[in-house]
Amino acid sequence: MNDFFVNNKKTKDISELRQDPVGRDWVVISTGRAKRPEAFKSSGTPERETPINLCPFENPKEHGNEVIKTYPLADGSGWAVQVVKNKFPIMEGQNCRAESKEGLYLVKDNAGYHEVVVFKDHRRSLAQLEVAEAGQIIKVYRERYLELSQKMCVDYILIFHNHGRPSGASISHPHSQIMALSFIPADVRRSLEGSRKYKEERGRCVHCDILEWELKEKKRIIFENKSFVAVVPYVPRFSYEVRIFPKTHQSYFENISDGETVDFAEALKISLAKIYHGLNNPAYNFFIHTPPAERDHEYDYYHWHLEINPRLNIWGGFELGTGGEVIDVDPDEAAEYLRGIKT
Amino acid sequence: MNDFFVNNKKTKDISELRQDPVGRDWVVISTGRAKRPEAFKSSGTPERETPINLCPFENPKEHGNEVIKTYPLADGSGWAVQVVKNKFPIMEGQNCRAESKEGLYLVKDNAGYHEVVVFKDHRRSLAQLEVAEAGQIIKVYRERYLELSQKMCVDYILIFHNHGRPSGASISHPHSQIMALSFIPADVRRSLEGSRKYKEERGRCVHCDILEWELKEKKRIIFENKSFVAVVPYVPRFSYEVRIFPKTHQSYFENISDGETVDFAEALKISLAKIYHGLNNPAYNFFIHTPPAERDHEYDYYHWHLEINPRLNIWGGFELGTGGEVIDVDPDEAAEYLRGIKT
Questions:
Q1: Would you say residue A7 has pLDDT above 80?
Q2: A153 Rama sector, left if φ>0, alpha if ψ -120 to 50, beta otherwise
Q3: Among A13, A30, B26, B156, which is 20 to 30 Å from B141 by CA?
Q4: What is the ipTM for the molecules in this complex?
C-alpha cells in the first residue's frame, strides 16, 4: 500500500475487516483510496522528491489537513511537529461491536483512527535531526498513543515510518503514521504468542535472554547508551535490519519516561544516520512493536522494541511463498560495518 | 531477494538456517550472492528487459549453466524447456543432520537444491503460451518435484515464478524456480496448522468449505473448467490476487494426473493472461502451496493450490509491522473485472 493516493471515487467503497479462516488473521479491506484497474501501471516506483511548492505537509492546514495538535519549536519561533488526521484514512469510525458472518467468514467494521505525524523540515529526515528534535517526536508518539488508547474500538496502536519511495512513502516530506486498529495484527499476535510461550516454558522473557547474549557477545551491537541498545539481530528478517530495545525488561512503549525518551531518540537517530550514511540513503521502514492497547489481557511478558527494516532487496516468489527474506549479508558483518559508520 | 546477482566474493560466506526463538520460524542466511555494502544503491528497480544477446537463458549451457534435463518441442525441432542448476544457489548440500546451538538459537546447514526451469522463448511469458505448452511446464514441475522429494534433506519443495522486475525477476527471460528446502517455511507451517485445526474442529477441509461457498456464490470466480477453479479470494493477501484450486479435495500437487495437468495449465494460463491484459502487464509472483515433501507426518487434511500475487502496491511500514497488505480493491469488483477480460 502507498500511504497517499489521489482518491478516485468508486461506486461503493468497502472498509471492513475480514478474517482468514485458515490462519485466523484479520485482513483490512479498504477500497476508498484504490486506483481503478485502468490506472495500474507496471512502471516501478522511481525515486523522487515531492516538490516543495506542491508539498501538502509544508503547511498542513492550508492543504486541507485537519490538524489535531501543533507542537512548537523550543524557541517558540514556529511549529516543530504537527499531528494531522490522515486525509484518506485506511481505518475510521467507532463501530466495533458487530461481527457478522459471510459464508464461513467473520466480518466486522474497519474501525479506528489514522493519524500522520508531520515533521517541520521538508528535507531533514530523522537521521539528520538533533537528538532533542528526535526526542520531541518520540514524546509526540507517546502522547498520541496514550490519547488514542483511551478511545473506543482501539485494540492495537501501530506507530510506523516510511522513508523513500520503495518503502511506500509517496510524499517525501518526513512524516510518521499512527494507526489505531480495532484488531491485533497477525505478526504482532505471533510475536506475542511466541513471547508468552517462551515465558511459560522457561520463566524468562525471550527478548531479555536475547539481549543478555548480545550484550555479552557484543559483535552485533551497533550502538548503546544507558537505557537502550541497537543491535543487528542474529536472526534478522531483513538484511541490515536494526532493532532497538530497552535494556531492562519494559513491556509497554507508552510507559517510557521523559529521560528514556532522550536515550531512545539518540539510539534511533544514530541507527538511522548509520544506515543513511553507510548504505547510501536507502529506503527503510521502522515500526514499534508493543503490546495491544486493549488491556483485557495482561502482556507483562512482552518486551517492546523498534524495528528498522532497510528496503535493499525485492521480495520475490520465495519470500511471498515462505513468509521471509533470504538474509544475504552476515549479521555480524552488517553490524561491524554499521558500527564503524561515523554519524 | 533478487534471484540472480553478480557474485561478489567475500571473505567468509555463510549458508545456514537459524531459528527465530520468538516465532520459531527458520530464517535462511545465505551470503554467497550478497552485494557489498558499498554496492547498495537507493535507486529503485527500473523495469527493463534483459538484452537477448546477453541473456543467460537463451542457451543455458553455453552460458555455463549445468543442465539437469532438456525437454524437446512437440515437433522435435528444438528444446521447449530446460531445467538447470541455479548458478548461485540459495541452498545447497546434503548436510541436514547436525543442529547446533549458538546462544539461545538453533542453527543448521542450509541444505537443499535450487533449480531453474527455463522456458524457450525470451519474450513469451506463461500468459502468452498455448495451453499445451503450459501443460508441458506443469509436467516438468511435477517430474522435478517427484525426483527432488526422493533426495536427502528435502523437507519442503517450493515451486515459484517471478515475472517483472518489481517481483524480484532480475532476468526477464521467463523462468520458474524450484527450491528443495531442508525446513518447512513459516507461512506454509501456518497454513498447514490452520487447515489441520479446522479439520479437527469441524471434520472438514477448510479449502473445500471455501470452494463450496465460492462455487455457490459465483461472484469471485474468474475461470473454471472440469477440475480447477480460479478465484479472487474473499479474504485475499494482495489486491487482485488469484488462487487456483483443484475442485475436489486433493492434498498433494505431485499426484496431479496427466489429464489434470492440462486443466491446471489452462486455468493458470488464462488467469495470467487476464492479469496481463487487464492490469497492463504488471509484475507478479506465483507459487504452489502443497504439503511438505517429508512424509513422517500425514497431510491428507491439506488442499494444495497455486497463488498468483500481482505486485501492484508497495509494502510499507503498515505491511511490515502487521504482516499483511491493505486490500484496496473490492475482491468482488476485482473478480468481475478479471472475469470480463478476454484472453
A1: no
A2: left
A3: B26
A4: 0.90
